[in-house]
Write a structure and sequence with these properties.
The chain is an alpha/beta fold. The protein has 15 helices and 19 strands. It is globular, with a radius of gyration of 23 Å. The structure holds 2-aminohexanedioic acid (UN1). GO terms for molecular function: oxidoreductase activity.
């Protein structure tokens, strides 16, 4: 037997960068290839397992996840910095995702169609694709992996999952829960490593039939470059530059509170985060004042965690510097909360005097930074909010029903919110963006079935002669 020498990586707590919270063994390229081959071998058996039995394993995993919620939340919080409270909420969400997809095992997988011939039975049947590669980010280390893995499995695919290297220990823990729940060997496989190495093997592996990825546009593009020319199905959920519009007739308190929540929850590290807000000039001063009051209620280190890593910290601070040098006016925050050796904390940050062409109005920042812009009226707001390469989510705060409906129609995003913050997702509803935010294949809800299965159309001649 040859011994495999794996590279070890230490994980550090972003709230206390000197604290090593554990080590993770990175897979070699050959090992990863072998895992994919084993997943391919396991496919036949899993595909032929009753979908109800497949769902049952997801349901048991949901129970185990809940029983271990403290442990999982604690681990993830120390690994990627989200507060423990935020993580407990995410774990709860994870359990409900598992339960939703567990039930899918009991639902119809096809339909009987009329045929032009009386002597034929014509029907459809959804079948799994084969091996699915799931490549997931650190910012929702539990919910995003589960909303990819659970539907992939219940519809009969086997999965090779590469969690973000920055959430590797949490990924390992989740994998163990599936194992404890009775997942057969090689059906769900967790591989650890860097996207550029282990991830690349998954993109190139001939056995992999589908790739589902959430992360940055840069990585999304490189996935398309590598796997696009092959016949693999590809689902990409990428960045956002989500706008909120606050009209003069809005409930000012609610609009300000939810805009700040949208911008600062999870330290702004959500692809659905509110990152620019257009305020009708009649209420501009009042809204700005309320936004600042709401942002000041945030206690950094208590209700808001650090950003996830030194890389994130440096990138967000440099976006803030860029905004200042472009002429935006800093009205709140803008600096590290403490010395970086004491944690990657950044104060909630608000800019005004932002013009539409500044980077801060156009590029995703993925941090606790909000750009506030004054607009003449609703027409100007919708025009500017749509003028973006991204199209993930957008909010309007108004009590005018015509404008709310107009916004629902004209907003060029996948997730439209009226009097609610830009973020959030529920397992039963399709999730995804338009334009450069997504490849279009939606996640979650019944839409997940579209990506993780393919139709067989069956015709049976019923006459014996
Ligand atoms: C949410 O807003 O609760 O990576 C979900 C992200 C998104 C998920 C957001 N894909 O931030």
């Amino acid at each position: 037997m040859t011994t495999i020498i794996r590279e070890m990586r230490e994980q550090f707590n972003p709230a206390k960068p000197s604290e090593c919270i554990g080590q993770i063994e990175l897979f070699t390229l050959d090992e990863t290839k072998a895992v994919v081959a084993r997943a391919q071998k396991a496919f036949e058996g899993w595909k032929n397992t009753s979908s109800i039995a497949r769902g049952e394993i997801l349901r048991v995993t949901a129970d185990l996840l809940e029983q271990n919620s403290e442990k999982v939340a604690e681990m993830a919080s120390r690994e990627m910095g989200k507060t423990k409270g935020e993580m407990l909420g995410e774990v709860k969400r994870g359990a409900s995702i598992l339960r939703y997809f567990a039930q899918e095992g009991m639902r119809a997988t096809g339909e009987v169609l009329p045929s032009t011939s009386e002597a034929k039975v014509l029907y459809t049947k959804r079948v799994p694709l084969g091996v699915v590669a799931a490549i997931t980010p650190w910012n929702f280390p539990v919910a995003i992996p589960l909303w990819k893995i659970a539907p992939a499995l219940v519809y009969g695919n086997t999965v090779v999952w590469k969690p973000s290297i920055e959430a590797a220990l949490t990924g390992k823990l989740i994998g163990e829960l599936f194992e404890q729940a009775g997942m057969p060997k090689n059906v769900l496989n967790v591989v650890q490593g860097r996207g550029s190495k282990v991830g690349q093997v998954l993109l190139e592996a001939p056995e992999v039939r589908a790739i589902t990825f959430t992360g940055s546009n840069g990585v999304g593009q490189s996935i398309l470059n590598t796997a696009g020319p092959t016949n693999k199905k590809i689902q990409l959920e990428l960045g956002g530059k989500n706008a909120a519009i606050i009209l003069a007739d809005a409930n000012i308190n609610r609009a300000a509170r939810l805009t700040i929540e949208g911008a600062m929850k999870q330290t702004g590290q959500r692809c659905t985060a509110t990152s620019r807000v257009y305020v009708e000039e009649a209420v501009y001063e009042e809204i700005l004042e309320h936004l600042i009051i709401e942002a000041k209620k945030i206690e950094v280190g208590v209700t808001m965690g650090p950003v996830s890593s030194k890389g994130q910290y440096d990138a967000i601070l440099s976006a803030i510097e860029q905004a200042k040098s472009d002429g935006a006016e800093l009205v709140l925050g803008g600096c590290p909360t403490k010395d970086k050796s004491e944690g990657y904390y950044i104060d909630p940050t608000i800019f005004t005097n932002v013009t539409h062409n500044m980077a801060i109005a156009r590029e995703e920042i993925f941090g606790p930074v909000l750009a506030v812009m004054k607009v003449k009226d609703y027409e100007e707001a919708i025009r500017l909010s749509n003028d973006s390469e991204f199209g993930l989510s957008a909010s309007i705060y108004t009590n005018n029903i015509q404008k709310a409906f107009d916004f629902i129609e004209r907003s060029e995003v996948g997730l439209v919110q009226v009097n609610d913050e830009t973020g959030g997702a529920e397992p039963q509803a399709p999730f995804g963006g338009m334009k450069n935010s997504s490849t279009g294949a939606r996640e979650q809800g019944q839409a997940a079935k579209e990506f993780f299965t393919v139709f067989k159309t069956i015709t049976i001649g019923t006459q014996s002669i």
